[in-house]
Design a protein that fits this description.
By secondary structure, this protein is α/β, with parallel strands linked by helices. It has eight helices and five strands; from the N terminus they run βαβαβαβαααβαα. Helix 2 links the parallel strand 2 and strand 3 (55-59).
Length: 178
């Protein structure tokens, strides 16, 4: 895919993975906007791109009203990496905090649909993988999206929120072509 000149939003773009994605997109000639609340990301990860004018940075919380609409407006492609997380210990010990991902994903996907985004790429998690398939190495591996189906058995609330994000985006695609 030719990304030269494409206007791309990276949510969570100051994070470790997000900043490396931002590097790659800038190197491919994309015009990149990053939104991050800096709860786990670091501005230093993308500072050189901001200073060079290759990245437009917005420090904001995507769960706040109107933020998703503002940052999505004018973009063609969205890479959605933003999430309430913090590693295995965090997602195991802060179940309720991880439920904010349900609202975050829903508001972002709706903004993408309403503003005519061409493509959304969603970063999910291994926590969506069914627990009963993780215990036996002989079990079938789900390597294709269409292999996923009931019974769902995500690992912790973070996993359930990510699984709901996948299913929400699939619904937006089926209903509205997002």
């Amino acid at each position: 895919m030719n990304l030269n000149g494409k206007i791309i939003l990276v949510t969570g773009g100051a994070s470790f993975i997000g900043s490396h994605l931002t590097d790659a997109l800038v190197n491919k000639g994309a015009k990149v906007r990053v939104v991050d609340n800096l709860s786990s990301g670091r501005l230093a990860n993308i500072q050189s791109h901001i200073e060079s004018g290759k990245v437009d940075f917005v420090e904001a919380d995507l769960t706040e009203p109107g933020v998703a609409q503002k940052v999505v407006d004018g973009t063609q492609i969205v890479f959605h990496l933003a999430a309430d997380h913090g590693g295995r210990g965090y997602v195991d010990l802060h179940q309720a905090a991880c439920t904010t991902n349900l609202a975050l994903d829903g508001m972002l996907f709706r903004a993408c649909h309403e503003l005519g985004v061409e493509k959304v790429v969603y970063a999910s998690s291994g926590c969506v993988y069914p627990n009963h398939l993780q215990t036996d190495p002989g079990e079938i591996l789900y390597l294709q999206e269409d292999m996923v189906g009931p019974p769902f058995d995500a690992d912790n609330m973070y996993g359930w929120a990510k699984l709901m994000g996948e299913m929400t985006l699939q619904s937006f695609h089926q209903d509205w072509g997002l």
